[in-house]
Amino acid sequence: MAPESLLAAVDLGSNSFRLEIGRVGSHQRIERVEYLKETVRQGNGLNSRHELSQDAMQRGWECLARFGERLRGFAPAHVRAVATQTLREACNADDFVRRGSELLGFPIAIIPGEEEARLIYRGVSSSLPPSQNRRLVIDIGGRSTEIIIGQQSQTLQLASFALGSVSWSNRFFADGALSKSNFAQAVAAAKQALGQARFAYPGTAWDCAYASSGTANAVGDALTAQGMDGKVITLRKLRHLYDQLLEIGHVDKLRIPGLKEDRRPVVAGGISVMLAVVELLDINELEVAQGALRQGVLHDLLDHEPPADKELAEIQALQQDFGIDTGHAQRVERIAMQLWQAIEPENAPQGSSQALHIATQLHEVGMRVALSNYHRHGAYITEHCGLATWEPALRQRVTQLVLGHQGKLRKLEDAIEEPGLALPLMALRIAVQLCHTRRDPDIAGLQLKRAGTECKLSTPQGWMLAYPQSARLLEEEAMAWSKTPWSLRLQLR
User: Fold this and answer.
1) Sign of CA pseudo-dihedral 388, 393, 399, 401
2) Rounded to whole angstroms, how far apart are CA atoms 450 and 489?
3) Which residues are within 8 A (CB) of 333 and not within 5 positions of it... i.e. 6 or more apart?
4) Element (H, E) at 37
């Protein structure tokens, strides 16, 4: 891809330097093209006089030279490089930035903690589904921790505190001992450093909580590797990892499944800070978010506000990327939603209507891959498209509907027994059959009713003679449902 079509963000963190390159896709989405990360551990190079050592500067310069080679040809307006807490503290930061900017080929800006918090929230919110919830975001970096409350894409409150996984590991675990006393001192000191947050971020000020960046991902990966749900961090899970660290006893012996090599030297400090935050703010659950500082930088480079209806924008982007006939999709949606309303149970699972709406708009998304088995290609796309920020349960249901809207029903196995899947799917499949001519079908007088597991579709007199192919497709549909716990009885006249 030509550099002029790309944006790039360089994040000079205290533990790692990162380069993310994105392409501006349909409807102003930013699609990742390349991601480079190097564990520079520049935060370890600060001495007691806040001077960055020559070795630490050299490691950083060598990394920036490599990033600079990749960024040759990029326009200055398409690249932003930001440095955070280590260079905020370093008294010789200007020396590093001057040489580093030359090697990178673009100016490096040392940003204030509040700007870092704003960019982090913008990056996190770009990866989340639309919601009116007030979101608490915790980002534990190498030498700073950002705490933000925001709604949609806007920050409501933000703060940056000078503690993180690298600084706390150096301060409290410098001897490598993973002891109770070291952890107790680390957690107590973190709570003291974060003391203002207890009153500034009460539980009444936010509705849900997220954790982003290195420490959160490291904890999530470790939990997942041990058979636990790594997408949600709780105090109980953190204490489980804490107990493992105590049992291991020393950083040199640290071997926890899922914990990457570059995280081992700093994981004790990171978990100490996370324990302090969770206990101090009385957080029940922290969902691990995918967005971070560099995504926020990319969105700032794009300089646009996220769409008011993010779900609609994501659907429209997929429709555009995969050449979907939107007029036909809307036709199928109108008929399917009308049929669904006629058979929708009173206790329908939350999100059933939303899943059906999305599936009708995307049921032909696989056709650009191949017409044969296009429903299977479409299901793969909806399941794995990372640019659509649907909740996991919603994504699963959309994928099932796209997969099941065509062909035999046995591929859905036991899931077809659920009314929350079977009934929306029946509405979708009937709508697809009725719209087979890709024109508005004649549904005047057509009725669909449900009694238990049986649905009855009836047509007015003369309909069968007027639409013989539609009638045949409906008969095949009834046969398909006869092999499931559900039935579709036809009264075609």
Assistant:
1) negative
2) 10
3) 357, 360, 361, 431
4) strand 30-39
* Contacts of 332-335 spanning 24+ positions with Cβ under 8 A: 332/360, 332/363, 332/428, 332/431, 332/432, 332/435, 333/357, 333/360, 333/361, 333/431, 335/430, 335/431, 335/434, 335/435, 335/441, 335/443
Summarize the confidence of residues 126-137 as an average pLDDT: 88
Alpha helices in 322-444 (DSSP H): 326-343, 352-362, 374-384, 392-404, 419-434
Residues 347-399 have pLDDT tens digits of 888 789 999 999 999 999 999 999 999 999 999 999 988 667 787 888 999 99
Pairing of strands 208-212, 232-233: unpaired
Q: How would you classify residue 107: left for phi > 0, otherwise alpha for psi between -120 and 50, otherwise beta? A: beta
420 CB contacts (<8 Å, ≥6 apart)?
348, 349, 352, 397
**Secondary element (H or E) of residue 488:** strand 487-491
Instruction: Tell me the two tokens of residue 348.
Output: 């329908």
At residue 126, the 3 state secondary structure works out as helix
252/417 Cα distance (integer angstroms): 52
* Angle, helices 374-384/352-362, rounded to nearest 10 degrees: 120
Is residue 290 within 8 A of residue 267, CB to CB? The reply is no
Contact status, residue 366 vs residue 380, Cβ threshold 8 Å:
yes
Q: Cα(36)–Cα(21) distance, rounded to whole angstroms?
A: 9
Residue 307's pLDDT is: 59
Which pTM value belongs to this model?
0.69
Alpha helices in 71-149 (DSSP H): 85-89, 93-104, 113-126
Closest CA to 363 of 405, 392, 330, 391: 405
| Amino acid at position 72, single letter | R
Reported as a single tens digit per residue, the pLDDT across 2-48 is 566 799 999 999 889 999 999 887 656 788 899 999 999 888 888 88
